[in-house]
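Work Package 4 report. The design task specified in the project plan requires that, given a folded chain encoded as structure tokens, an amino acid be chosen for each position. We show below one input record used in the internal validation round.
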């Protein structure tokens, strides 16, 4: 069991899908002995900004809209970039997660935006490691999209579920990976 390490997950969710995915990541981090806090970027307080600055890891979470980061999340990134010159987030663990309607859904473009942002902020990006089927037949549905830069998911057609269960399991595994990275490098 690893020691508790706070992971901040600033998120924007348009219809609830991203929040569900971020919660699964948080559960995975907590199951691995870490701690995670979700922060709604539309309702941030000064205490949440302090939490972001103090956290050893920040996972950026937003949906992919029209092949990119939504405007509301972009506004958060721009506000946070005020710390760029002083590299206030340098050497923090970083990662990203996104969800879109279609299996491809141009989610890679969102993860690329987030990873470049993290690099400019001096952060250390952690990608996805899970190998699912068809390579690992004992992992059906895990990392079904084969995304390595970060966590991607598709919204479920069953709106009571929001995100496919296999994507939620992949999210839990990603959360555990981030928690272990914080212990190792954070």
């Amino acid at each position: 069991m690893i020691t508790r390490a706070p992971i901040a997950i600033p998120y924007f969710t348009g219809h609830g899908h991203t929040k569900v995915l971020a919660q699964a990541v948080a559960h995975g981090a907590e199951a691995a002995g870490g701690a995670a806090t979700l922060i709604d970027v539309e309702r941030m307080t000064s205490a949440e900004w302090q939490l972001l600055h103090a956290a050893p890891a920040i996972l950026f979470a937003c949906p992919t809209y029209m092949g990119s980061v939504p405007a509301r999340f972009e506004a958060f990134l721009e506000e946070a970039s005020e710390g760029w010159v002083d590299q206030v987030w340098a050497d923090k663990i970083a990662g990203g997660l996104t969800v879109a309607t279609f299996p491809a859904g141009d989610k890679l473009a969102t993860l690329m935006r987030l990873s470049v942002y993290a690099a400019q902020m001096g952060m250390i990006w952690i990608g996805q490691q899970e190998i699912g089927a068809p390579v690992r037949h004992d992992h059906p549905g895990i990392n079904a999209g084969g995304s390595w830069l970060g966590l991607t998911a598709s919204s479920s057609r069953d709106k009571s579920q929001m995100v496919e269960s296999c994507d939620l399991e992949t999210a839990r595994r990603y959360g555990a990976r981030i928690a272990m990275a914080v212990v190792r490098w954070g």
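The radius of gyration is 15 Å. Validation will be extended to a larger panel in the next phase.
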